[in-house]
Design a protein that fits this description.
The protein has nine helices and no strands. It is about 75% helix and about 0% strand.
């Protein structure tokens, strides 16, 4: 084999690094072009995304239990679900404070976090409201179905979580300008620590099990496509602080 374990780690980590740099541009644009709607929308949608992840891990836990999977595997899914619940709870507490207890007016916000166990968009995720997010999950599902390699599937799933690490990380690097930014940056720091084992730390395990250079090249292509769409999803979450021309340049 022409590849090495260290080389595979560097290839996969490099893709995450490039995405982290790119998504910082999106987050920076939000911070420079902030308004009340952008604050509310990104926070509300992130909360429901975390809620969706909590539901996802719960479903996996129940499926594992029904299939009599190993008890430690069931326990891990339970722990993953609670971790997402902590993230959700933290975002919602900030949102409730920001809205001074008033109802959130983001339309059908709970549907934003609706995705399936196959990582595709669920029925509650309205394409008419959130086309870029819907496209992101639809692309992830297509990629998982199209590849015949279980290893590539694991890379895709890992990078979905791994990209979240990059996003949460860059949010911790924004400037504290008021109490709102101070609150969400503090929360993002805890989220980053929790998310590390879903993404970057799993790269080491993936590098040990790669069987062919062809699988690596397929994974890199699919992850790159997914990361480009993730940039559009995040820009949409912030109510498009980057213009279409700026997004094209970033891609």
């Amino acid at each position: 084999m022409s590849f090495t374990e260290k080389g595979v780690q560097e290839e996969l980590a490099g893709l995450m690094d490039v995405f982290t740099g790119a998504v910082y541009r999106v987050a920076w644009a939000y911070s420079e072009r902030r308004n009340r709607d952008r604050d509310i929308y990104w926070l509300a949608l992130q909360a429901t995304k975390e809620y969706g992840a909590m539901v996802y891990h719960s479903r996996v836990m129940f499926r594992k239990a029904k299939e009599m999977d190993a008890l430690d595997s069931i326990q891990k899914s339970s722990a993953d679900s609670f971790e997402e619940a902590e993230h959700y709870w933290g975002y919602m507490k900030i949102l409730d404070w920001y809205l001074e207890g008033k109802p959130c007016e983001v339309p059908e916000m709970w549907g934003y976090g609706d995705f399936t166990e196959a990582l595709g968009p669920g029925p509650g995720m309205k394409k008419s409201l959130w086309p870029e997010s819907h496209c992101y999950f639809d692309l992830a599902q297509q990629q998982m179905q199209q590849t015949r390699s279980p290893w590539v599937q694991r890379v895709i799933a890992t990078n979905i979580e791994g990209a979240a690490v990059g996003f949460h990380y860059v949010m911790t690097k924004l400037s504290v300008t008021d109490e709102f930014t101070e609150r969400f940056i503090r929360h993002e720091r805890t989220v980053v620590q929790d998310e590390l084992h879903h993404g970057p730390e799993l790269i080491q395990e993936l590098a040990k099990t790669l069987e062919s250079q062809e699988e690596l090249e397929e994974a890199k292509q699919k992850v790159t496509e997914l990361r480009v769409q993730e940039l559009r999803q995040r820009n949409e979450q912030f109510l498009h602080p980057l213009t279409e021309a700026e997004m094209n340049q970033l891609e």
